[in-house]
Amino acid sequence: MPTNAPSAAHPLSDVTSSDSTLRRFLHGLPGVDAVGLEARAASLGTRSIKTTAKAYAIDLAISMVDLTTLEGADTPGKVRALGAKAVRPDPTDRTTPTTAAVCVYPDMVAVAKEAVEGSGVKVASVATAFPAGRAALPVKLADVRDAVAAGADEIDMVIDRGAFLAGNYLKVYDEIVAVRETCGAARLKVIFETGELSTYDNIRRASWLGMLAGADFIKTSTGKVAVNATPANTLLMLEAVRDFRAQTGVQVGVKPAGGIRTSKDAIKFLVLVNETAGADWLDNHWFRFGASSLLNDLLMQRQKLATGRYSGPDYVTVD
């Protein structure tokens, strides 16, 4: 299904024609019932997953991980090791799925690309002055061009939260459009940093803004602030992509990132996907986990289901 912005012939195409029309559209979206949203997210999180379904869910979750290292101390050796782990998460069991991608800074893209060559694992790069996004647009676009030139398959950009919170929606929209054009064939994930948007209404508006601008994925957070992905904010974004496809025919992916550390957490998010957006999103082309430590727990739980016992502390690598 196409993942570009709605065509000019589509009824939603005119909502971005000016700042006033865009503002009117975004503020005309239904208000979020915070109590109802959080109650539904909590309720879905209590669903019981049986053994066979749990094994399937764990393998699905592994295949959806964007295995991530975004530290100032990242080295080529660390990135190569991470790439090897993404390609073969459990060297003792070749039936273990590969992860969806490795996510790194732009200067490490070439190293990551070499590490995963021929495996089908994608290389994602954060860009646009990640994580704060405090840079001029030409600098942000240069960041994207560097990552794409180095071989990035996917770009994870951050929006200008200051502009968004100030109500400068058209500026944010135009920036996403410019980044989308600079990405070329690379898929674009648009990060909102939901922990800084303050309200659920703002998260809903940001979701629609990102999708109107041509995002291939909408992503909760950078993992660099106190509040990152939660069941409630991810549920809200899943509702947005579901409703956007219903209105436009365009399917957009969702990537919760930050704070998802256990298999139990991951399975709760998969239930949210299935019950809210539907089975069409239960694929790593449309849903990802931005995580590092999550993969280790998924691997240990996978071995527990296969052998009946938990592995020792040296079973998985420490990232």
Short description:
With 319 residues, the protein is of the alpha/beta class. The protein has helices at residues 19-27, 34-44, 51-63, 76-87, 109-115, 137-149, 161-165, 169-183, 200-212, 231-248, 263-276, 294-307, and strands at 65-68, 101-104, 122-127, 154-158, 187-191, 217-219, 253-255, 289-291. It is globular and about 60 Å long.
Walk me through what this model shows.
- It is a single chain.
- The protein has 319 residues and is of the alpha/beta class.
- Helices cover 45% and strands 10% of the residues.
- The protein is built from twelve helices and eight strands.
- The protein has helices spanning 19-27, 34-44, 51-63, 76-87, 109-115, 137-149, 161-165, 169-183, 200-212, 231-248, 263-276, 294-307; strands spanning 65-68, 101-104, 122-127, 154-158, 187-191, 217-219, 253-255, 289-291.
- Helix 4 (76-87) links the parallel strand 1 and strand 2.
- The radius of gyration is 19 Å and the shape is globular.
